Amino acid sequence: MNVLFICSRNQWRSPTAEKVFQTYEGFTCRSAGTSDKARIKVNAKLLEWADLIFVMEKKHKQILISTYGTLVREKELYVLDIPDEYGYMDEELIQMLETSVSPLLYT
């Protein structure tokens, strides 16, 4: 299953999620950002690739829907409600991700 994690600039939250969940058997993970300044900017090709999409904040979902419309509406998309206040591989961030994402991977 292809899993895409999205935050704003693809610097801290979504790359951490990608790194953590790439070790899970049966999942291929990538990450991207919604901002023009994102390290890897989300695009239609990434969204088409993804079977499951996790966004860190509600605003990321709104940006995806307004930019990509039906493409996003056809996907399983979850808002994690994780604010932009953690660094890359921050232990608290990892714990939040594992608590919120893991159960959704196996439904």
Automatic annotation (TrEMBL):
InterPro entries the UniProt entry points to: Ptyr_pPase (IPR023485), Ptyr_pPase_sf (IPR036196), UCP029416_PTP (IPR016919)
Positions of the Phosphotyrosine protein phosphatase I domain: 1-107
Superkingdom of origin organism: Bacteria
Protein name, per record: Phosphotyrosine protein phosphatase I domain-containing protein
Organism this protein belongs to: Rufibacter tibetensis
